[in-house]
């Protein structure tokens, strides 16, 4: 099952040229771009691992692309996303976040049902990938 | 694509705004003939490369890394800034900004600090020009545990592999850069353009002064002009002469004295003319004249 998190996730995977264009757009807006990765695709896992520090004062996407490539090289079978943070007063939040790398096979999520008191039903989701320990998934 | 076999080079140059750019360069940079010649050559190469591309001929990205050597105040930083604009207009640099750094910005203070620091600077410079001022400080042969070598190695790697992403310009004084390159032959051979900035002649310094004053909306009275000519001759002979920079400092001090003079002329209302004009006394109050005792 294809993971759909962040912008563009319902589109086919972006090509490098498209990723570069998106990053150029972010840098043009003055946003700080960072690269993060994880192998736990649960939607509530909002804090992914940072790959290097966020990059400030960049003018051109080449610097970020080099960082993305380095991250892909180190974690070829992880999820990798590019975040753009807007620090202007009133925003101070991520403005754009999109996945640039995903594992070749994504096992998807299990929907767990649990009986509560009475006829109450509790639901939770769990990624099949997290059966294995961190680093051994995918 | 149609089988075009000819291409109008002039039109291509005009399209990039090249003639205007070069004319502006001629007007605003005084002297520096070897530098201008080299810029012209580079500009021509980039235009020809573009023409070749549009006719389907192979054109490898040229290596445009440069080394500017010359005495203090000969315009190395100014030209580097221009270079960034020119390369941007010619479509070689995507953004055309200049990131100016010195040893402190590249070399770290402890083991493992240098590489991230240098890489960060390189990332910031991508799409533009990285200007390393006083580059010879990067390598300190007297200290074998110096981290400068690490910065140079990373620099070399990026200069070689990401030529189309950034242009590196090293600058420094001639003799010290020569020693620096002798110790780092790999660096020297990766820099295609070694440009030497000559010292300015007195006449050139005078026109530079004129240009600086015109930019600030000041003018020299005729006696003041004469005083400046004398000042330049005297100043050139004194130690620590830094070409255009010395002239700029002298003019800044003359402006201070002019302001003081106008302020002291009690009760007098000041005309626009007086506000714009530097008089001989503003220049002649300089220490340079006092030292030789030639003050009238």
Summarize the topology:
The complex is a heterodimer of chains A (about 140) and B (about 300).
Chain A: H1 16-28, E1 32-38, E2 49-50, H2 62-74, E3 79-86, E4 93-101, E5 109-115, E6 121-127
Antiparallel strand pairs in A: 1-2, 1-3, 3-4, 5-6
Chain B: H1 9-15, H2 18-28, H3 33-54, E1 66-70, H4 76-89, E2 98-101, H5 103-106, H6 114-125, E3 129-132, H7 148-161, E4 167-172, H8 174-183, H9 185-190, E5 193-197, H10 202-215, E6 219-220, H11 222-237, H12 243-264, H13 272-276, E7 277-278, H14 280-284, H15 287-292
Parallel strand pairs in B: 1-4, 1-5, 2-3, 3-4, 6-7
Helix pairs in contact in B: 6-7, 10-11, 10-12
Describe the sheet with the most strands of chain A.
Answer: 4 strands, antiparallel
Secondary-structure content class of chain B: alpha/beta
Number of strands of chain A: 6
What is the first-to-last residue Cα distance of chain A? 13 Å
What's the Cα radius of gyration of chain B?
A: 23 Å
Query: Helical percent range of chain B?
Result: 55-70%
What percent of residues of chain B are in strands?
5-15%
Major sheet characteristics of chain B: 5 strands, parallel
Q: How many strands appear in the DSSP assignment of chain B? A: 7
| Secondary-structure element series of chain A | HEEHEEEE
- Alpha-carbon distance between the termini of chain B? 76 Å
pLDDT averaged over residues of chain A: 93
Report on this structure.
The complex is a heterodimer of chains A (138) and B (296). By secondary structure, chain A is an alpha+beta fold. Chain A contains 2 helices and 6 strands, in the order αββαββββ. Chain A has helices at residues 16-28, 62-74, and strands at 32-38, 49-50, 79-86, 93-101, 109-115, 121-127. The model of chain A has no long low-confidence stretch (mean pLDDT 93). Chain B is an alpha/beta fold and 296 residues long. Chain B contains 15 helices and 7 strands. The longest helix of chain B has 22 residues, at 33-54. The radius of gyration of chain B is 23 Å and the shape is globular. The mean pLDDT of chain B is 86.
